[in-house]
Amino acid sequence: MEPIGLVLGSGLGQVAENFAPVEDVALSSLIGTELQSKIPPLGHKRRLFKARWKGKDLWVLQGRLHYYEGFPMDVVVEPIRYFHTLGVKTVVLTFACGALKKSFKVGDFVAVKDHIHLQSANPLRGKPDFVDCSRIYSEGLSRKILALARVQKMRIANGVYASCDGPSYETPAEVVALRRLGGDVVGMSVTAEAIVARSLGMDVAALGWVSNLASGLVPNHKLSHQEVLEFGQKIESKFSKLLLSFIESI
Questions:
Q1: What percent of the chain has pLDDT over 90?
Q2: Is it the case that residue 226 has pLDDT exceeding 60?
């Protein structure tokens, strides 16, 4: 059975404590000096390891690399390419995001059905990969996530993820623009990883949680990364339950 690749996003690193580590891999062995002088954002341990869960082999990236940290885009997606060399056929990307619509509540879950990649660089730039992006996210995997969430009586939506460079949050005007483009939620990751995973023939699932309503949706509310981490602690057990049951079902 092929191993599953798992990327743990903001506020979700503690999910890794459910796994029994088998082998650690130094990220510096993959990306070399790019890690030097770059301190991970709060909530990202930046650890790569192999683990076992309910008879399944997992490769877990606990704290992804971000374009906003100053990493080149090819470095950001290198862990995904490494997963591929290890025989990973399915990648599960997790994330925290801002809601672009008032129909969402903080703590809601989101299964990504499509995305709008608005980051400054395409992760396939420089490679002759003309990839069909009509169905990046596996419909079958998304259906499993939605069904499991409903059984567990969790609020969840199937949505479109818009990605921006960061690290600044979006302005109210940008939030309006992203909503008009068809976005449901917004974040600073996921899409580059998903594009590369799909280009390598992997099945992709993306599951996240709404950490805040985006700028302008709540009058006079200032956004902060600390707020994201604090609320992540509150939803961690619910998110872990959904994520682990999903991994078990793959």
A1: 70
A2: yes
- At 237 the pLDDT is 86
Nearest one of 123, 113, 141 to 203, comparing CA atoms: 141
The span from the CA of 16 to the CA of 237, in Å, is: 12
Which residues partner with 98 through β-bridges? 186, 212
Q: Label residue 30 exposed, middle or buried (CB < 10 Å: 0-12, 13-18, 19+).
A: middle
Q: How far apart are CA 223 and CA 229, in angstroms?
A: 12
CA dihedral 210, 249, 237, 69 (to 10 degrees): -50
Give this prediction's pTM.
0.93
Position with higher pLDDT, 53 vs 116: 116
The closest of 163, 173, 175 to 213, measured between CA atoms, is 175
Report d(CA 199, CA 162) in Å as an integer.
Answer: 19
Cβ neighbours of residue 97 closer than 8 Å, sequence gap 6 or more: 110, 161, 185, 186, 187, 208, 209, 210, 211
Q: Which domain holds residue 28?
A: 4-249
Residue 233 CB partners (closer than 8 Å, separation 6+): 11, 14
Q: The domain that contains 46 carries what CATH number?
A: 3.40.50.1580
Report how many domains make up the chain: 1
Token pair 């990202």 is found at 44
Mean pLDDT, to the nearest integer, of 110-136?
A: 94
Q: How far, in Å, CA of 166 to CA of 43, rounded?
A: 16
Length of the chain: 250
